[in-house]
Design goal:
Layout lengths: L1 E7 L5 H15 L2 E5 L2 E5 L2 H14 L6 E8 L24
Antiparallel strand pairs: 1-3, 1-4, 2-3
Helix pairs in contact: 1-2
């Protein structure tokens, strides 16, 4: 299932900047960055619950926000991209 993860982390202090780096690193482990604080994550439901739990433990709920947009398995017809930085196809062929 495709999930869009979006976050906004308060970086007014060192702790906030550290949280921001940890959240971004965790998202990179599961998906593709499509904008500064937006990731596309294509995972099964069990993996999604795992990453959601990790991210929820990292944020400061008083200062930060975290959003999940569930696009499901038929996500390709729900995403329209215009402009630079065309995204990858997580279901396509992997060329190394």
């Amino acid at each position: 299932m495709m999930v869009i993860v979006s976050y906004d982390v308060s970086t007014t202090d060192d702790k906030g900047r550290k949280r921001l780096r940890k959240i971004a690193k965790e998202c990179v482990n599961y998906g593709q960055r499509v904008q500064n604080s937006v990731f596309e994550i294509d995972v099964d439901y069990g993996q999604f619950l795992k990453v959601k739990d990790k991210l929820m433990k990292l944020i400061d709920k008083e200062k930060d926000s975290l959003r999940f947009y569930y696009l499901g398995n038929n996500w390709k017809r729900r995403v329209e991209h215009i402009g630079a930085k065309q995204t990858y196809d997580p279901e396509g062929a992997l060329i190394i």
